Q: What sequence folds into this?
């Protein structure tokens, strides 16, 4: 708390007068906070907002005279000039009316005059006191964003706009009205004001009015010379409505000579009477504000502020160390400007209603409001999409549609609101996070986000464990799966009819793109607060649909519990052996060079093996290999399928060696080289990002880098997994569902023979071969089993005879016969497939065992190829989707299960049906047993599956050993 300046005696000339537009703040404070009530039922939301505003103002102004000016009755002298003045304005909300008196009481509790006068508006009183203060030689600051007060601005009088946290001088008035402050009344007289029912001149807006006034000098001259105006419509409107213009001028012109009954001298700054103030705060049960007052005003200061003795002039206090040019001179309550309506769609988006929070008091008010509301939207702005490389720049929050804020924390220099080289005002990061931490970790307050997993990771790096959470992206994903994307911008346009500000609009693109910490605060506010606002509206719109559409269980039992587990997994990352990657890269490079030499030698010509065009010419023109086909570009096709066909049929060694070269090239560029660059220098680990709402079936996908497609089917690909290692004293544990989709096919298609085989633990592929081909299991040719395996897995992906023939290298007729024999032996499979396709055509989606909807756009497409593709997808989606649901259920349960068991294992990766853990060596056996049990029991209690699920475990020093 700044030390008080020497008291100024009541009669002494004022130096700096603060005139607060109290009436404007009442409505802003009312709409800013949730409907709060005292235990006796009295509404006090607006009172709380106003109280915090005034306390903040008194702490941070150097004014020696201060007063809060209020409107009195609705009607005043202007209604005698124009009966319909403000006739369109609705009556105050019933719950606000009892708060008017309490707000006046709050003002007096701070020992500040509360001024109002019958027959005059607050603006007239402000104009009058400003005139008196200037006449006494004082500077005046009008704390308001009201455009009607801009006519008062001059060298001695300026305003402070709490909406944008910036002072308003002549330049800002010119920017808004196009004229100097002394001409504002004339412009308003012409343009009128629909809100206050000021008529103006039809057809003339602010821009045209400014042009006319700048041309003719003033309103009277303009009206006298209206006949000279060339535009007929404008000329006629001015001539016919001249009286309306003059009446409008009388309505908007503020009276500067109101016969006020409270002199300016009575506005002298007085010391707080803590007894009176605390009594007021306790009566209204503003506990957070009470704590704030008591923490700032220690016992010694409280003793100084006892009520003045009878007959003694009241003491006055100023704060010389803080000046009113500080943009933080207004609190959160004063700068909220949300509309009264809270409907997610009907409330208009208005960036002017968003608040820039740059001081701790404003932030505390937002925290208190969120605590009272029980839920808040939270969004972070950072310097990177990779959470472990990102620096926190700011946080946005929203409480109601249209009511949002942005808290800058890490912005650098520059911006429209700043002088060159000056850093923006922002709360110190540690102070802000300390203030936010209780809210973000409060189990009684729901934190809502769009892809909130990212924000959980960001807050985790700051030591904050955010819970509980809701995610609009995942709510949308559960509702409409693969029907459309689930990014915020797409959802906003789809459900709200609003196109949000694009990230590129505030950061730029290409080489000129800047990170968010370089974005000017005004642009950052508009962008970040809008994101929070949109997210809140989407939540209000989409969350109720989960119950209505019977999808709440999918969200609450699968998707929502998974968020913290995935966030933790991403934060942990996986350790990478960089020297091993370097060794593999060098090995691949050497072998590629040798293959290049061999290929060129065998081809008898020097060419670029990596060029498909040159390769095609060598294969089909130079070597004259059969089957060359040119595409639209005139180049030969040289895809993997073409090369594999050539390698099999031509007998020439070049196609096979090119395939080997391509494999090594891809492994080197995509994995061994790229993964080295992905190692986080701070952690020595790779931190992938798992997309929770990217696939049609509910599967997770991995990116930056993609760790789900590390090759495993080839020896060369498996080598890369050697570079994924455990920390010293730890082991990697891999736990993988065995044949889960086949097991689910036996369950969902109801195939008794397969169900029984799984229950007995038999070799399912050998059994299939035996039953389909009539061959005894004992002594079975491995090739026959291989064909049965291909059919088993192919069938659940809707494989065609052509596809099976290609996979097995057999004639299409033979493949067709295999499939028909399979269906004959297991008729339930075909029935399941037809039933599933019929359901998809009728509903547009298929469902998993747990009720997830997997949308199938194109299932009724007129194009046969696209329709057939979607039919195959529809067949597999319930199986793949159910498998995804099961492993997600397991993942959501495992962190708590491990914690309850006192085990320190950390989940690192999910790769489709496999989970990878890092486990202390001494806990490997216990952890493997626990994870296996949780994974095998994951469907329960929601579903009882007759076919047992088997999770197989493996342990090693690296991923290759563990798998």
A:
């Amino acid at each position: 708390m700044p030390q008080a300046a020497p008291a100024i005696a009541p009669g002494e000339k004022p130096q700096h007068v603060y005139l607060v537009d109290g009436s404007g703040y009442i409505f802003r404070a009312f709409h800013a906070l949730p409907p709060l009530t005292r235990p006796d039922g009295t509404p006090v939301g607006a009172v709380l907002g106003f109280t915090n505003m005034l306390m903040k103002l008194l702490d941070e102004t150097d004014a020696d005279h201060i007063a809060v000016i209020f409107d009195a009755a609705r009607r005043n002298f202007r209604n005698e000039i124009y009966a319909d003045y403000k006739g369109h304005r609705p009556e105050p909300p019933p719950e606000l009316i009892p708060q008017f008196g309490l707000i006046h009481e709050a003002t007096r509790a701070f020992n500040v005059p509360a001024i109002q006068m019958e027959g005059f508006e607050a603006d007239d009183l402000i104009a009058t006191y400003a005139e008196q203060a200037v006449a006494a030689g004082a500077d005046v600051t009008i704390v308001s964003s009201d455009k009607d007060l801009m006519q008062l601005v001059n060298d001695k009088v300026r305003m402070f706009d709490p909406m944008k946290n910036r002072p308003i001088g002549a330049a800002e008035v010119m920017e808004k009205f196009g004229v100097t402050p002394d001409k504002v009344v004339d412009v308003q007289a012409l343009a009128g004001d629909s809100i206050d029912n000021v008529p103006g001149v039809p057809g003339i807006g602010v821009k045209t009015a400014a042009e006319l006034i700048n041309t003719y000098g003033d309103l009277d001259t303009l009206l006298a010379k209206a006949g000279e105006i060339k535009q007929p419509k404008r000329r006629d409107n001015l001539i016919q409505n001249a009286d309306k213009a003059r009446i409008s001028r009388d309505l908007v012109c503020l009276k500067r000579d109101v016969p006020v009954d409270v002199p300016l001298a009575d506005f002298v700054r007085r010391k707080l009477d803590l007894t009176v103030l605390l009594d007021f705060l306790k009566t209204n049960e503003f506990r957070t504000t009470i704590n704030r007052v008591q923490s700032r005003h220690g016992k010694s200061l409280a003793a100084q502020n006892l009520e003045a003795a009878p007959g003694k002039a009241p003491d006055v206090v100023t704060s010389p160390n803080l000046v009113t040019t500080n943009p933080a001179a207004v609190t959160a309550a004063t700068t909220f400007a949300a509309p009264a309506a809270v409907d997610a769609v009907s409330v208009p988006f208005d960036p002017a209603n968003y608040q820039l929070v740059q001081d701790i008091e404003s932030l505390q008010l937002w925290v208190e409001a969120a605590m009272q509301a029980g839920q808040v939207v939270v969004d972070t702005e950072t310097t990177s999409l990779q959470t472990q490389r990102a620096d926190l720049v700011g946080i946005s929050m929203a409480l109601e549609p249209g009511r949002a804020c942005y808290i800058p924390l890490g912005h650098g220099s520059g911006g429209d609101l700043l002088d060159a080289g000056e850093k923006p005002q922002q709360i110190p990061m540690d102070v802000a996070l300390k203030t936010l931490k209780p809210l973000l970790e409060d189990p009684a307050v729901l934190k809502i986000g769009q892809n909130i997993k990212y924000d959980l990771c960001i807050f985790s790096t700051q030591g904050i464990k955010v819970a509980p959470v809701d995610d609009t992206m995942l709510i949308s994903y559960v509702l409409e799966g693969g029907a459309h994307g689930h990014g915020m911008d797409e959802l906003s346009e789809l459900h709200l009819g609003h196109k949000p500000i694009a990230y590129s609009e505030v950061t730029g693109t290409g080489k000129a793109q800047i990170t968010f910490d370089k974005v000017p605060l005004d642009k950052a506010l508009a962008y970040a607060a809008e994101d929070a606002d949109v997210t809140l509206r989407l939540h209000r719109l989409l969350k109720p649909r989960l119950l209505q559409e019977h999808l709440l269980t999918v969200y609450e039992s699968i998707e929502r519990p998974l968020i913290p587990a995935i966030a933790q997994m991403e934060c942990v990352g996986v350790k990478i052996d960089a020297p091993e990657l370097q060794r593999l890269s060098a090995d691949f490079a050497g072998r590629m060079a040798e293959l290049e030499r061999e290929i060129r030698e065998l081809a008898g010509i020097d060419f670029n093996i990596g060029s498909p065009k040159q390769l095609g010419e060598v294969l089909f023109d130079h070597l004259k290999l059969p089957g060359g086909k040119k595409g639209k570009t005139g180049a030969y096709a040289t895809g993997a399928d073409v090369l594999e066909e050539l390698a099999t049929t031509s007998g020439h060694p070049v196609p096979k060696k090119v395939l080997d070269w391509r494999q090594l090239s891809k492994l080197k560029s995509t994995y061994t080289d790229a993964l080295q660059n992905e190692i986080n220098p701070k952690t020595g680990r790779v931190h992938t990002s798992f997309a929770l709402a990217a696939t049609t079936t509910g599967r997770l996908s991995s990116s930056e880098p993609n760790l789900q497609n590390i090759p495993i089917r080839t020896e060369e690909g498996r080598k890369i997994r050697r570079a994924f290692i455990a920390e010293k004293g730890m082991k990697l544990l891999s736990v993988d569902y065995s044949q889960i989709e086949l097991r689910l096919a036996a369950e969902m298609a109801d195939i008794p023979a397969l169900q029984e085989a799984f229950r007995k633990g038999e070799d399912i592929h050998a059994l299939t071969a035996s039953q389909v081909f009539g061959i005894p299991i004992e002594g079975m040719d491995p090739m026959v089993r291989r064909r049965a395996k291909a059919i088993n897995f192919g069938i659940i992906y809707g494989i065609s005879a052509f596809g099976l023939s290609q996979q097995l290298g057999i004639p299409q007729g033979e493949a067709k016969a295999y499939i028909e024999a399979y269906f004959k032996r297991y008729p339930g499979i075909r029935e399941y497939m037809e039933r599933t396709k019929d359901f998809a055509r009728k509903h547009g989606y298929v469902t998993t065992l747990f009720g997830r909807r997997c949308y199938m756009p194109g299932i009724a497409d007129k194009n046969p190829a696209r329709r057939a593709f979607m039919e195959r997808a529809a067949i597999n989606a319930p199986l793949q989707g159910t498998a995804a649901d099961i492993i997600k259920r397991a993942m959501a349960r495992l962190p708590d299960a491990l914690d309850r068991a006192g085990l320190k294992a950390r989940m690192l990766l999910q790769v489709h049906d496999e989970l990878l853990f890092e486990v202390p060596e001494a806990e490997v056996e216990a952890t493997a047993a626990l994870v296996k049990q949780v994974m095998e029991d994951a469907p329960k209690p929601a579903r009882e599956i007759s076919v047992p699920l088997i999770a197989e475990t493996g342990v090693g020093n690296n991923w290759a050993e563990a798998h």
Residues 575-686 form a domain with the Taq DNA Polymerase; Chain T, domain 4 fold (CATH 1.20.1060.10). Residues 864-900 form the longest helix (37 residues). The chain has four domains: 16-169+258-304, 342-573, 575-686, 742-880.
